[in-house]
Amino acid sequence: MSDYPVSLDDVIVCDMTFPQSPCGPLYTPDFAGAMRERLALGVTYTSITIASDEPTIDGAMRWLGEARAHIDEHPELYVMVERVADIERAKAEGKVAVNFHFQGTNALLGDLGLVEVYYRLGVKHMLMAYNSRNLVADGCHEDSDVGLSRYGRALVAEMNRVGMIVDVSHTGYRSSLDAIELSTKPVIFSHSNAKALWNHQRNITDDQARACAATGGVIGVNGVGLFLSEARFDNSPETIARHIDHFANLVGPQHVGFGLDSVHDIPYFLSNFAKAGKDRKYPVGGYLTSNKPAFAGPDVIAKVTSVLAGMGWRDADLKGVMGGNWLRVMKQVWG
């Protein structure tokens, strides 16, 4: 077990973004092995990306069915999460607590009625957009920044009604603020870093962070070198800790967590990334396989919390960042 600065006996470690799946376009070999590795490193809860903004309804349904079948085949490993009590049970039983998210809203194809369907299948948070414009919002790489569409506004209301967390990572500046203003429930940035520390389009401004915190939400700091510093390959615990500490000083440590966006099998992932044409779709953001992006794995959580402890963080605040802050939001929205 990794050497956390506080005891794992009384804390549940949460990672709000694992961008790989046991099926579909984000398939990774030996997915169960990746989950066992996370469990061994002290991570109890992981949110699994089923798709970004590519899928048809048929594709999304098929991938959700295959992912649920994988989970059902391994009852010794997984607990499917509907409520926070399921995460607590997974912790007590030494299992991995999981559910799903979409990085984008195109799987709805404009049908608000599908929000509840996907929610019942395990999709518990959904990003408004993935880098580019869709029917709902502008992505963070769009220059227009026109905000949420009328449909997007209705979508936020429906997600609030159903209990699906509104997630504005990868989303354009104005669109994210529109969603935050409209939501009656906490809004999250599941995996976004501080623009004040590295001016990348994928990162968020201080006023976005403040607006998120005002809803009771949480900002999940990721471990992708491209979004951490100008060096692009620096995903050290110290650099990740700087982003966490920045947000904590800005809005309070109760509004920060981990959304690592880490990749288990990097060569396989990059091969599939290129096959999907994303090198051509998002070159402006540096999403090139030739850049050989650096991803911090789940072992970094213990290292980052140790760095924060060395900076004078209190145990109670460390426990919040490790997972308690995410659990608070989940409890408010999922129950």
TrEMBL record:
Pfam families: Peptidase_M19
InterPro entries, sorted: Metal_Hydrolase, Pept_M19
GO molecular function: metallodipeptidase activity
Biological process per Gene Ontology, one example term: proteolysis
Name used for this protein in its record: Peptidase M19
Species of the source: Solimonas marina
Taxonomic lineage: Bacteria, Pseudomonadati, Pseudomonadota, Gammaproteobacteria, Nevskiales
